[in-house]
Design goal:
mainly beta, 6-stranded antiparallel barrel, 12 strands, elongated
Amino acid sequence: MGLFGLFGKKAAKAEMPPIEPDPPFLEDYAGIRAEVTDLEGQLLFTAKLLGLEEDHGDLHLLSGSSLPRELEEPLPVRLRGFSIRKSKAAYLEGIIRPSEDEGIWHVEKLALSKLENDRSYFRMDVAMDASLTPVSRPGAEEEPCKLVDLSVGGVRIASSRQHQVGDRLLLSVDLTPGKAPSTILCQILRVIGQEQDYEYGCRFIELNDADEDRIVQIMFALQRKQSGRL
């Protein structure tokens, strides 16, 4: 081959191996409250994901379990919860096995299957009397309202008075009968006008752990009631 043939052709570029994307940072989901189901969608229990390291952690029960603790082998499960840090619904998969503590299940081979903006599954219809105070209006008086639906990320409120997107409301509601009412700060994201009442889609701001636990307990109790799993 002549010099022209040797140097005149463009050298073939070496093919670079594809860059594998980094796996999701699972620690972002530490502490989420989740519904744990089998692969058929059967509700097993609700739990809080704690002690998360790499792809394993502990599920601390928030409700009773319908699952016997004598398992011959680890059970594949799906976790469905709401990530406050991501403000999205998180869906994870893994396998569980019992621990020595009856209130804890170990979860292993945990992986994020999807992360969605849709919170509809976690939003439950309710009918709770409450009151709100617009914090953006100095001297505003407390006014009655009603909670229409509820999620761990926010609430829909019905009120006869008009408010605006972006307004912050101090919501007072009796989440747990027999206990002191919860006072929760929320912000209006959307307004739905009605003939007589207005409805406001709100997100919670600075929700404390105690109130978040109460909301989750209410939601899971409603889910079990609606599905016939009391």
